[in-house]
């Protein structure tokens, strides 16, 4: 129904419109009013009634309607006054926006008259709007790096008013950095632009607060503001800056790992990431990064490895500081390493001999040493030394080379090897040192002859020793080594004048073991032939050439009691009887009748003879001197004593066991020669009778006389012969160049045993020759006669004594010519032997 109503209504209107248009054309009236906007509701717009020429009555009938295109009714016709009033407050900006002429059209229909009038109401602008910004506050971020003159479009303000009432311009609060420029677009719109008049520096002022004011041209002028906050964006406009362009550090080379070397510091005025600084090594990085560690945030440089001054004395590198941007600063780090005496000297033995002969001359080079110290300066100066007690010397050859040479002669026998400790010390504080020991062997050279333990050796051997008996042992030592110390012994045989064929008595008597030095007897010695043996033994080492030492050895042959006493006087005849001694019957007790003379070839105790009466015809009449052998009367001869007394004297030596000999002596007791003769004749008759078995002739007195004369003349002849020989000999001595030492040596050198076997005679000859030499020597005072080498033995003194006693009968006692004769013979034989036989040897 509503639809049908609306359709009816619409058709009615359409009809009305058609009618109106036709009427308009017919009436063609148009009414126009102008009112300002924003009038109160009900405000007067125009007197429509009057303008249309309508009666108020007509109006009140309601035959007038106002048709508005669109639904909103802005105006209403007051029936009573016929005024057109506003139905509401009209806002031009709302109704027309920016349309220049804001027209509200409607029609006025006079229904009764069927007239239509166009009503046009123009709404004029008033300045009812202030310019306004969308935002009260706006923020603008501008990099401080923006160049001067840069423009920044600002939000424009809006003012919906028209014309002069709309936005007319902008103002900016005062600023050092900014100015405002208002641009007008082609369509006439104005928009503000902020112009950077002076470059920003965030570091100086980070925020700029500006006020932008927009004004219109109304009256009064309206304005709107907005606050512009310009935030200066940091641009990385500040490079990092190191606190120092150069960091200089001095480090001891023994600084431990991890120690801080230096901390570099760079600052950046920027902020944020632009302020964040990272440190890194510069171009030298690769070479050093193993040695130094750089903390990239803190700039702390620590030591990553041990330093070695000897490797590098200083380091130099660059450190870069990067900020968050690309800005970089460089600083140089110079690290000087100072030397610490951390290296001991090094010693190298370049060449070395391990052994040196002991006879090497001083200056022989043993070793060549090289010393080196990696430190520098004082720390690297090295001095080499060896203990001063050693016979070596260190010579500096050149630079760091030393040669170890011998300083003096070496002696292997004192020191066979050396450990030479060479010490190299540097001059650091504290000093460091190194030492090396060189072992040196001293080689032996044959520089020592064998040495006997004694200066001379004396050995003793009893005569009659077994063959091969060991006599003594020699010992020589040689301090050398090896072959040079191997000692062999040999006998040194004196060269005999006899020539090659003759053997020295030594070589046939003695032998020496070449290795042990033991001396053996090759034969049995006879003291009576050989009392001492002098020879030399040579000890020779095995060196090349060999060295030798001689030592003299004296071998004394010790006596054994192997000889019985030998009775010289009274001498036994071939038949065993002896001569007859005379004693006057009137002789006092103690009268020396005769003397038994005996010798013993032995010596010492073995030759100490004692005499004793073994048997006597008349016991008690005679006694024999125990030591002297003198036969003396023990009492006065009595008449009853028989004329002829037979005595047996025992001569005994003192050896162990003792040996002895006996002799029988016949003593005739008579006062005068005739008596003797008569006695003798009876004696010999009785003796003949005894020898011939009881029957015998009486001896002729004449015969006895002749016998005496013959004996005397023979003796005289012998004496003159003896004197002649003596004279001859004396003359020869005078002519000869005195007694040279050689001659005397010759004399004394003759083995005693070869000379005369009997001590007494030797002693006699000695005293004789001494007399002779003294007469010769009185003319030359420096002449000296060799000391007889036997005179100090007991046996020889004893023998001398014996001789004296033996001579006694010759001088003092009217002995029986026979004994005299015998003694004379003996002397002659001796002299002949001494003078004639010996010189020819
Ligand atoms: C040298 O040194 C060695 C090894 O230490 C040692 O066996 C030897 O006895 C020493 N020699 C001397 C002569 O000191
Ligand atoms: C040892 O004696 C021999 C022979 O008489 C001699 O040639 C040699 O030089 C002597 N040696 C010494 C060291 O005296």
From TrEMBL:
Protein topology in the membrane: Single-pass type I membrane protein
Subcellular location: Cell membrane
Keywords: Calcium, Cell adhesion, Cell membrane, Glycoprotein, Membrane, Repeat, Signal, Transmembrane, Transmembrane helix
Keyword Flavoprotein: no
Transcription listed as a keyword: no
Pfam families hit by this protein: Cadherin, Cadherin_2, Cadherin_C_2
Domain of life from the UniProt record: Eukaryota
GO cellular component: plasma membrane
GO process annotations (BP): homophilic cell adhesion via plasma membrane adhesion molecules
SUPFAM superfamilies: Cadherin-like
Signal sequence residues: 1-29
Major localization class: membrane
Domain Cadherin: 74-133, 134-242, 243-347, 355-452, 453-567, 584-671
GO MF terms, alphabetically ordered: calcium ion binding
Matches recorded under PROSITE patterns: CADHERIN_1, CADHERIN_2
Stretches that traverse the bilayer: 705-728, 815-833
PANTHER family: CADHERIN-87A, PROTOCADHERIN GAMMA-A3
Function: Potential calcium-dependent cell-adhesion protein. May be involved in the establishment and maintenance of specific neuronal connections in the brain.
Protein name, as recorded: Cadherin domain-containing protein
Organism: Sphenodon punctatus (Tuatara)
